[in-house]
Automatic annotation (TrEMBL):
This is Lrp/AsnC family transcriptional regulator. One of its GO terms (molecular function) is sequence-specific DNA binding. It comes from Sphingomonas aracearum. InterPro entries: ArsR-like_HTH, AsnC-type_HTH_dom, Dimeric_a/b-barrel, Tscrpt_reg_AsnC-like, Tscrpt_reg_AsnC/Lrp_C, Tscrpt_reg_HTH_AsnC-type_CS, WH-like_DNA-bd_sf, WH_DNA-bd_sf. One of its GO terms (biological process) is response to amino acid.
């Protein structure tokens, strides 16, 4: 049994309600959270603490509007590596994490190896990040870019 399976098997309906409520508003006061899930404060706090200790709730963060910061240009970049042995993959992983414009990085089972979500101020800045940073990452042999025209929903929503 995997760790993820054992974690899923051990959360009940009330835990799911807590998780759902906090996904909508991670700043809910414990009193309001306990009312929403049908518990008194003390058991609700205990469950919240258990969910955090077990890593089911990994933390809380502010959801920022990137457009308000002038970062409304989004592109997805396919990255093909010249070497996919573990040492090469690890070198790529460590280097890509140092590029602040890379908002997400996913290894895929596809005709390319990684898909990056890159957020910049405009096409010129994206081109610079692609040319100076992404293309020079370890073992990158080619890239392909897809420009986002409209976002209906993303992880930050």
């Amino acid at each position: 049994m995997t760790r993820a399976t054992s974690l899923r098997d051990d959360i009940d309906l009330i835990d799911h309600r807590i998780i759902h409520a906090l996904r909508e508003d991670g700043r809910l006061p414990i009193g309001e959270l306990s009312e929403r899930v049908g518990l008194s404060k003390t058991p609700c706090q205990a469950r919240l603490k258990r969910l955090r200790e077990r890593g089911i709730i990994r933390g809380f963060r502010a959801v920022i509007d990137p457009a308000a910061l002038g970062l409304d240009y989004v592109a997805f970049t396919e990255v093909k590596l010249s070497d996919t042995r573990e040492a090469a993959l690890e070198a790529f992983r460590q280097a890509v994490l140092k590029i602040p414009e890379v908002e997400e990085c996913h290894m895929l089972a596809a005709s390319f190896d990684y898909l990056l979500k890159v957020r910049t101020s405009d096409i010129r800045r994206y081109r610079a990040v692609l040319g100076e940073r992404i293309s020079s990452l370890p073992h990158v042999s080619s890239t392909s870019t897809f420009v986002v025209m409209e976002t209906l929903r993303d992880a930050g929503s």
